[in-house]
Amino acid sequence: MKIARYADAQIMDLLKQTESGMRVSELCSEYGMRSTSFDK
């Protein structure tokens, strides 16, 4: 089984930040992830 890299709370925080208008590319660089991982 694959272990999740980010906790559920972190994922919810990312989604809230994108809803508030923050760019996905900025969030990905801040959290150290690729945009394709974000899309999944």
UniProtKB/TrEMBL annotation:
Protein name: Transposase
Native source organism of the sequence: Shimia abyssi
A Pfam family it matches: HTH_Tnp_1
